[in-house]
From TrEMBL:
<keyword id="KW-0378">Hydrolase</keyword>
<dbReference type="InterPro" id="IPR020476">
    <property type="entry name" value="Nudix_hydrolase"/>
</dbReference>
<comment type="similarity">
    <text>Belongs to the Nudix hydrolase family.</text>
</comment>
<dbReference type="InterPro" id="IPR020084">
    <property type="entry name" value="NUDIX_hydrolase_CS"/>
</dbReference>
<dbReference type="Pfam" id="PF00293">
    <property type="entry name" value="NUDIX"/>
</dbReference>
<protein>
    <submittedName>
        <fullName>DNA mismatch repair protein MutT</fullName>
    </submittedName>
</protein>
<dbReference type="InterPro" id="IPR000086">
    <property type="entry name" value="NUDIX_hydrolase_dom"/>
</dbReference>
<dbReference type="GO" id="GO:0016787">
    <property type="term" value="F:hydrolase activity"/>
</dbReference>
<feature type="domain" description="Nudix hydrolase">
    <location>
        <begin position="6"/>
        <end position="135"/>
    </location>
</feature>
<dbReference type="InterPro" id="IPR015797">
    <property type="entry name" value="NUDIX_hydrolase-like_dom_sf"/>
</dbReference>
Amino acid sequence: MNTERAPKVGVGAVVKDEHGRILLVLRKRAPEAGYWSLPGGKVDYMETIENAVIREIKEELDVEIGLDQLLCVTNHIIPSEDTHYVAPTFLAHIIAGDVQNKEPHALGDVRWFPINDMPDKITMTTAYALKHLKESDTSEKNSF
């Protein structure tokens, strides 16, 4: 029997609307239950990370997204929750549908937040992605 443990792969997306707000979901399950998170989920065997994030957000929120770019990759390691994910996060936008919570057993709420007015309790991957998003916005403004 192989008892070796390995990290899992999870994906997420910073979904922005036309007002620059970011879509977050309130997690009901570990890891980080009770925290606001980017929408996303786990990558299935033989699935690309791009297809996984599109599928997961369709399942969770009933919207189709377009991927703009890979924003960052988080080493999502929380020893106290026995959690280890490698989590690519994309920048994305909605191309069809209206946001609905299709997984109320897993998500307590779904809301849009202005980037400068995030809730206090956000997940590790959300904080890391927002840091990269703000850094990329600043570098674009400072470029020639």
